[in-house]
Structures are given as C-alpha cells and as structure tokens.
Design a protein that fits this description.
It comes from Desulfitobacterium dehalogenans (strain ATCC 51507 / DSM 9161 / JW/IU-DC1). The structure is a single chain. This protein has about 300 residues and is mainly alpha-helical. The chain has one domain. It contains 13 helices and no strands. α1 packs antiparallel against α10, α4 packs parallel to α7 and α7 packs across α10.
C-alpha cells in the first residue's frame, strides 16, 4: 500500500474515533430530557441532509445487486447497531456495554477473513485484541466494580458488536464499487432511516420542541448530527477504503480511552490508577494489532464464501 494513503487512512480513523469517543458525553447529557429514539432519528436525519447539501448529486447505482449492500449497511451500521446498543443500556450496566461493544474488531476480523479475500487473520491481531480487552475492562469498570452479568442486556451488546462488524465488512465491499464516499455514505444513511421507521412507531417518536431548542441540547444534537454522523461516517468509510476493515476496526479500542479522558475534562469525573493502566494497555493492544505479523494459515479458519 502507498505509504501516503496509509498515513491518511490512520489519520481519518483517529479523527473519527476522537469524535465518537466524545459522543457518549453528548448523548448522556441529551438523555436527561430527550428519548433515545428521538436522538437517534434526528442525528441521522441531520447527517443525511448535511451530506445532501455537501454533494447534491444523485447516486446512480450501476447494478441492482450493489444496492443490496447499501441497504444491508444501513440496516446494520445505522438502525440495528444503535437500537441494540440503546436497548442493551436499558437492561445492563453501561460499563458492560462499553466492554462488549469494544470487541467488535474481533468479529470484524472473522467476517473479513470469511468474506474479503484481501484481508487475512493475523496472530498479532489476536495478541493485540487480548491486551486491549484487558485494558478496556479496567477502563470501563474504573478499577472498582465487579463484573455483573445481565444476560439479556449483555446479549444485546454482543449483537451490537456483531452488526457493527458486519457494517465494517459491508463498507469495505462498497468501497470496491468506486462510488463517491459522500454519496455512498448518504445512501447508507437513507436506508438506515427507512429501516428506522418501524422503531419510530414502536418506541414512539414524540420530539419536544421546547427541549430540542434549548441551547445545550441543540448544540449536542447538532454535534451528533454534523460531527458524529455526517463527518465521522464519511471519514470512517474512507479509512476502511484505505486501510481495510480489520486495520480500521482496531481503532474502536480507543473509544473508551477518549471517553474517559473527555469525562474527566468535561464532567470532572475521577480517574483511577487502574483506569490509567487500562488506557496504557488499550493503546498497547492497538499498536500490537496494527503491526504486521504472520498470517494464520487458511485451514485455521472457515472456507471462503
């Protein structure tokens, strides 16, 4: 791979994760007065409109089968991921969800090995994954809480990690179609919003204009719509296109790191020595996973689809 493009890919992934890591703070503040389904719909509706204004050209799909990939990406990366994550948070602890969702790079590696001929399983990936998960657990539980299993919530968290992994692989496949990234991301958002309609009916879409127009809430909604959705999905999809699904996905390890640091600065939360050690382990796991190592032999995994 061209070194310049690889560096660009890593920078795009870092920018994405830095913003995504801070979204938990914005969402936490919004949840005090706005329902999860309203937040979810508005952030992606705003994101869709911004991308439409940024590049107001209709995407002309060359083959009908390609549109199925866009629909699947919208279902997995927009609708299912965020619905499952929000539902998981209602049944189990946020710390559990934080740990579980951060294992999505593991599922991404498995899916990429099965469905993407260009991406192989590497021993170093699993070494880095193991180190990072230990670090994420220390960060999420802040060194002071015991892991408490809540089967339904934890299972929903695992499903969220799986569908995000599927989204990462789907976007890598979509990048091979050579469409404009903004147009491609906008089409994914479109399908995500379409698949969200049943959830709007089930959970009740009742936006409170008074609450939405409060300066703090308005700022956070716009931050989620403009930054975390419109900008970040474009930068993430671009990073996947440049680096591949597996190398990009390991940056997810950094989300808890960014969240903890932001919470300390913005919310004045206390950070423990265990959390600091967890941050170090998480970053070490990312570095180990990113380094080139030997492939795991083909017979070690399932056959190609």
């Amino acid at each position: 791979m061209d070194t310049k493009k690889e560096v660009q890919g890593h920078l795009l992934a870092l920018i994405t994760i830095f913003i995504w890591g801070t979204t938990f703070i914005s969402t936490k503040l919004l949840l005090e007065s706005i329902t999860p389904i309203v937040i979810l719909f508005l952030r992606f509706a705003i994101g869709f409109l911004v991308l439409l204004l940024a590049y107001p050209h209709r995407l002309k799909i060359r083959e009908r089968t390609q549109d199925l990939y866009f629909a699947a990406a919208g279902l997995c990366g927009v609708t299912l991921y965020f619905l499952l994550e929000n539902m998981a948070l209602t049944y189990t602890f946020a710390s559990n969800v934080g740990v579980i969702v951060s294992i999505s790079p593991f599922f991404t590696a498995i899916f990429a090995h099965l469905f993407l001929d260009t991406e192989k399983l590497r021993v170093r990936f699993f070494m880095g994954f193991s180190v990072a998960v230990v670090g994420i657990i220390l960060i999420s539980f802040n060194g002071g809480n015991n892991l408490q299993l809540n089967p339904l919530g934890d299972i929903l968290g695992v499903l969220a990690a799986v569908v995000w992994a599927a989204y990462s692989v789907l976007t890598k496949k979509i990048s091979g179609f050579q469409y404009n990234t903004i147009q491609a991301t906008r089409r994914i958002f479109f399908y995500g919003l379409v698949f969200m309609i049943p959830a709007l009916i089930i959970f009740g879409f009742k936006p409170d204009i008074t609450e939405l127009t409060r300066p703090t809430n308005l700022f956070n909604i716009l931050f989620l719509g403009l930054g975390a959705s419109a900008l970040c999905f474009v930068t993430w999809n671009s990073a996947v296109k440049l680096l591949g699904a597996v190398k990009t996905s390991v940056y997810i390890y950094m989300v808890p790191v960014i969240t903890v640091i932001t919470a300390v600065i913005v919310l004045r939360e206390r950070i423990t020595g265990a959390s600091v050690f967890g941050i170090v382990l998480t970053l070490a796991g990312l570095l180990i996973s990113e380094r080139k190592g030997r492939h795991i032999p083909e017979h070690a995994g399932a056959g190609k689809a």
